[in-house]
């Protein structure tokens, strides 16, 4: 069969892509022609191949642009681009033989030459995920590399979650009802407890890194900044996302522990309940300083409908001093289970058997939460208890007397990082006079270390 030059170019790209056996091409085109497709037009051929599911829309569009490589990585075919960040791209992939769908994170080759730590951190994430096996953590399937021309492409294969992030849900629906928010955070706390038991600290818990699938199951992802107890890495002293960063982690990421993840989870809890992080708007440096020195506006003011015992729990997670927070994710999970057993109605509890059935630790011992939890027969009575029986007022959140070390540095976000819907030109929470006075003598960025040292001393009255 004779083809036009445009069709020849499209078929040439398709054959070289690894998506089709070259001997099958003519037979497929003949079948399209017999079905009435105009095979003189590459766009119509591509559209027909998408309709009969020979190609995905993403594959077809790239083939029409003349792209020949980047569709196959080892045993996997790339089907669709899920997202692209500053440090990697994530695709929907499929195992060529097993036909299992998965998520494939690809490290761009440019990072291998521009950063000596990029590959090490990429592989560290894969190792961290591989160590974990929990319902609420995205599972690892494979780690590999493949040749793309003269370049080596590194990729990491993970469980594909059909759902959305906490950030996306709040952007679409607004702040979540108390019951739904508590259940999501409970599941995230379960996953974190499993990671912490394995000696892994996430260090980047935030709404964008917590997914919920179509069955309502939460999945923690993106352990790219995870700290593993048996690894000493030469890394930047500050890692994380400013809106959800624990004060002590802002001082030195290497000292972050499980309580730092508790603070970040508390910021996430605050976010899904009121649609904003504890300190929204302003510059990166201003948000960092406010995490160090300010107390967020009480949730009771932003959401008067929330039960006091729930807002109290959130503020305990947000204590500046790590010693004054809820100490473990496992404890958060137990507290939220008890809270749900007390406040959720019978129908909701029966639709969420994990809340009723969770009562044993990994060692088989009955948890304190299970001892206190009512039986299924008592659920209806528990659900009817008035909220007035709860803690009357959330406790005053204590502020940290001062940083443990005066060696302070700002959190640095990737250059050109895209702004999210969280950003705002105006502060949603007024800066206190104390913090405002600390910001007045702010110097040029090059003098950040000395400025933050002075700010810390001034705040503590040194």
In a few lines, what is going on in this structure?
This protein has 462 residues and is of the alpha+beta class. Helices cover 41% and strands 12% of the residues. It has a 6-stranded antiparallel sheet.
Strand runs, count: 11
Radius of gyration: 26 Å
Terminal CA distance reads 85 Å
Low-confidence runs: 229-238, 359-448
Q: Tally the helices.
A: 20
Main β-sheet, in a few words?
6 strands, antiparallel
Strands ordered across the widest β-sheet: 1-2-3-4-6-5
- What does the average pLDDT come to? 75
- The secondary-structure class comes to alpha+beta
The shape, in one word, is: elongated
- Strand % is 5-15%
Bin the helical content: 40-55%
Describe the structure.
The protein is of the alpha+beta class and 462 residues long. Helices cover 41% and strands 12% of the residues. The protein is built from 20 helices and eleven strands. It has helices spanning 5-16, 25-34, 42-51, 57-64, 109-114, 118-130, 166-173, 178-197, 247-251, 258-274, 284-293, 299-302, 308-317, 329-343, 346-351, 353-357, 368-372, 379-383, 433-440, 448-460; strands at residues 72-73, 76-84, 89-95, 101-107, 140-148, 151-158, 163-165, 200-201, 210-213, 218-220, 227-228. A hairpin with a 2-residue loop joins strand 1 and strand 2. The chain is elongated, with a radius of gyration of 26 Å.
